[in-house]
Structures are given as C-alpha cells and as structure tokens.
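Ops channel
N.P.: pipeline sanity check, posting one input/output pair.
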C-alpha cells in the first residue's frame, strides 16, 4: 500500500489510522448491496477474511442484480456513491473527498501537442493469429471455429462478421478517441493509429511510454493529441518529445478532466489503464471521476471498457446448459481423474460448475458464470466492478457505452504470475483458449468500432435490451471460461500442473487423453 499522500488515495481508517484496501472494498460492496438485500450487505461488511472469501460477495452482487431489472441500477448507484465518498485526494498537504476533486485549488492548465502520423495507407483490419494474418474467408472460418467451440459467444462472432462486411467503418477520421493508459499492452492504440483516428493519449510522463506511443502514431495515419504541462512548438523530434509529454491520472485527475472537457469535439473515452494491486482500484476511480465529469460537461460523450473473463457475470440460460452438458459428457478417464483429484484434495479441485438459474422480474431466467480467480485478489475484482457499475448506469442514463469481455491474454502483467502463466498454458485441457496480446488487440479494437458504428449495437442506449446486465453479456469473448464443466478456479490449478508438464514430462501423454 502506498504511503505517499499525494493525489488519489484509499481513505485512512479512523479506528486504526491506517489505510486498508480490504476495509474500503468491503464497505463499497456492502453499500452496493444495501438497498437490494440487507443480509448480504451485512455479510460483506462482517467478512473476516476478505482476501480469501471476497468471491462469494461479488457473486451476491450478480445474483441480486439478476432478480430485478431495477436492481443493477440501484447497485451501481449505491456502489459508486460510496466509492466517491470514500476515496480521498491530497494536494498541497490538504485532503479532499474524491467527489469534490474537480473543484480543488490550484488546478493547472494542460497544453496540447499535435503529432501527425506519416502513413497515407487506407485503413485495413486483420487478425494476427498463430503466425498468420487472418482476413476475409480465412478469418470468417476462424470466427466460426471459435463460436462452435464455445470460445466466443454468438453475439461476439456476429459483431466481427459485421465489421468484416463493413470495411468503411474502420475509417475513424470522424472520431476523437481518448485512451486512458494509451500504451497499455492490451489496448487498441496500434490499430487506431492505422484507422485515421483522432487520438488523445493519456499516459504517465515516462520516456519509454511516450516513445512507444509516438513511434506507433508516426508509422500510422492517425493524428495524436498529447497533454503536456508546458506549451511546445512543432519542431521537436521523438527523442525530445518523449521527455515532455504525459500526465498522471492519480495526481493530475482534475487537470485531465478539465483539459478534456474543453475539447470542442465529441469524445469516446476508453478506460484501459491498468496498475498492479491496490493502485488498480485507484486508477479505476481516477478514470471514473474524469469520465463522469466530462460526460456531465459533454453529454454526447461515449464510454468504452474491456472486462476480464476472470470475473463473475450474469449469463444467458444457454451458457449454463452448455456447461452442464459438457460436465455430463465427460470421458471416462476425465471422470475418474477428476473424481480422484477432487477426493484427494478434499473437494477443493474439480468442483462441479453447478449453477441454478435465477428468475428475473422480466420473465426470463439467467445463470451465473463464476470465473473469479482468487489469486488475482479483491482489489482487481473491485476495480473491474467499478467499471461495470459505471457502464451500466451510464447506458441507463442515455449514454453510448461499449463494454465487452476480452479473452484471457498472455500480457506481461498476467504471465509474470507463474501460476496464471502455467494455468493459461494448460487451459486447452478444459477447452479454454488464452490469446496472444496482438490477437486480443485486433479483436477488441474491432468490437469498439462495431459498437460505435453499428446503430443497432447494444452499446446504443436506443437499442432495447430486456435486462441491464445483458449489456455485458453481449459480445463476450471469454475464451471458453463461461462454458467450463467445473468451477473455473478449482480447475485452473490442475491446468497449471498440465501447463508445467506440457512437453516436458510423460504425464503429457496421459493428460492428452483427458478430453478423449
């Protein structure tokens, strides 16, 4: 936990005079549940081991959200209000509530530097996949394979087919797209730079970060607008510029918000910044503060989020049916092996992904895909939940919101965790696919284009949906995690063993028969 009291911080707990992300997380989740189920709210608040048991409380958020079409809106309002009243912002030695951050004293003016890409190439799109550049019929066939194997939902496959049928959508010269965390490894910068977009890049004042951003834009056909704390002339080279650009979301929150609100164009705001641990919650809150302020000042602003598949979601009934069918149709060796391992582990491994359907007051039934991975921690879950709440609420209030589940991706932030790296290496054992960053980037950038350009997309608030949570169900590329036969976190440790053993030990031959 950071002890630097500058910028956006978790609150100091009055009882201990210390910062506790667990206490704050419990309070936010409890507040979110307070008006939909008082008992669940109290259970969250009284939880003694938040870091181990947080999944049950995040699952309660989803379960109670399903039961009523009004519940997700209530949950989002309560959770976000508690978060904005809890977090603090420090400047010049003084502490302010985050909800008041846009009116703190000494808000500096940011300057804008314009940088034009050098390419004259027309926009094009392809999907890098296993060393190939998939386009046209080859890409259509791969999309069909992913859909048939349950790696992506049909709505995701259909969205990709739509963008293939409309190559003109990739001309983004009419869009001004703001990337919070522009250099993010899983972000869409590389593609937007090829699609004539007007790009506003928000990222740390770090030479390595800006060298990547500037080089990417230079080789594309987009136009970059970058923030700086001083006015800059157009005569700078990249090796000079990289040391002069950038802003800090955590310490310059109001500056960034005011700078964006003054932009004369309609903005598409993408919350893709990621930081490790408790900083991820703080940067999510910083982005939320900025996006809320800009949206209030510029009502035609659209929002974009990318969800993680390792979370807990409401899902259509057919997803639960497919998971149950997969469990029932396991091979004899899989049944024997999973039962043996489950018994030996006192049923910690290979728990059946048995889910009861939950009836909603809209007359439909939904299930829950619980794919939370405990090792990722409650801070990661809270950071992503804050983004889901804002997306749900913003669309309800009439904003265009693109929010799609991206597949598990072998980014550096994931693969530096040895367990997760090994688990994804062995995920194919359970019909789960982890994607390379360049593949995820191409797919998710195309989905954002789809949501902006296709007026019938669920991103458009004028498109009718039967439940607010259907916004997040649509367009999901979960890599197969929704349809796994087991509770995902009880199968991943075995996938990790398989990943470690793959190509190294004789066990590979035995496990290769696991699915047969």
């Amino acid at each position: 936990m950071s002890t630097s009291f500058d910028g956006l911080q978790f609150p100091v707990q009055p009882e201990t005079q210390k910062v506790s992300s667990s206490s704050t997380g419990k309070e936010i989740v409890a507040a979110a549940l307070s008006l939909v189920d008082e008992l669940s709210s109290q259970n969250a608040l009284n939880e003694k081991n938040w870091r181990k048991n947080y999944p049950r409380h995040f699952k309660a958020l989803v379960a109670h959200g399903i039961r009523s079409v009004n519940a997700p809106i209530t949950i989002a309002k309560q959770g976000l209000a508690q978060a904005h009243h809890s977090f603090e912002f420090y400047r010049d030695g003084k502490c302010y509530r985050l909800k008041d951050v846009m009116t703190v004293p000494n808000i500096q003016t940011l300057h804008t530097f314009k940088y034009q890409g050098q390419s004259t190439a027309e926009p094009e799109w392809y999907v890098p996949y296993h060393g190939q550049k998939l386009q046209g019929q080859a890409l259509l066939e791969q999309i069909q394979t992913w859909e048939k194997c349950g790696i992506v939902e049909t709505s995701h496959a259909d969205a990709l087919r739509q963008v293939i049928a409309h190559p003109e959508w990739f001309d983004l010269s009419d869009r001004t797209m703001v990337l919070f965390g522009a250099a993010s490894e899983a972000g869409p910068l590389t593609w937007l730079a090829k699609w004539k977009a007007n790009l506003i890049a928000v990222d740390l004042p770090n030479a390595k970060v800006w060298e990547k951003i500037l080089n990417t834009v230079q080789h594309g056909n987009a136009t970059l607008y970058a923030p700086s704390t001083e006015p800059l002339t157009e005569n700078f080279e990249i090796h000079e510029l990289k040391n002069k650009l950038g802003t800090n979301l955590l310490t310059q929150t109001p500056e960034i918000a005011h700078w964006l609100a003054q932009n004369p164009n309609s903005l598409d705001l993408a919350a893709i910044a990621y930081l490790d641990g408790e900083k991820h919650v703080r940067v999510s809150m910083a982005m939320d503060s900025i996006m809320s302020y800009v949206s209030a000042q510029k009502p035609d602003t659209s929002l974009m989020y990318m969800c993680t598949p390792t979370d807990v979601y409401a899902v259509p009934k057919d997803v639960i049916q497919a998971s149950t069918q997969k469990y029932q149709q396991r091979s004899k060796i899989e049944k024997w092996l999973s039962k043996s391992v489950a018994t030996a582990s006192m049923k910690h491994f290979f728990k059946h992904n048995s889910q009861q359907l939950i009836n909603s007051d809209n007359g439909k039934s939904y299930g829950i895909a619980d794919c939370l991975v405990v090792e990722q921690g409650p801070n990661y879950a809270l950071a992503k939940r804050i983004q889901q709440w804002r997306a749900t609420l913003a669309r309800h209030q009439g904003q265009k919101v693109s929010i799609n589940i991206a597949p598990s991706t072998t980014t550096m932030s994931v693969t530096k965790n040895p367990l997760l790296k090994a688990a994804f290496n062995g995920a194919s054992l359970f019909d789960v696919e982890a994607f390379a960053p360049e593949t995820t980037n191409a797919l998710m950038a195309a989905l954002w284009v789809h949501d902006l350009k296709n007026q019938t997309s669920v991103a458009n608030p004028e498109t009718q949906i039967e439940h607010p949570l259907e916004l997040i169900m649509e367009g999901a590329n979960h890599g197969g995690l929704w349809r796994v036969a087991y509770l995902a976190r009880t199968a991943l440790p075995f996938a990790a063993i398989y990943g470690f053993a793959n190509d190294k030990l004789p066990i590979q031959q035995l496990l290769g028969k696991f699915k047969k």
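N.P.: looks fine end to end. The mean pLDDT is 89.
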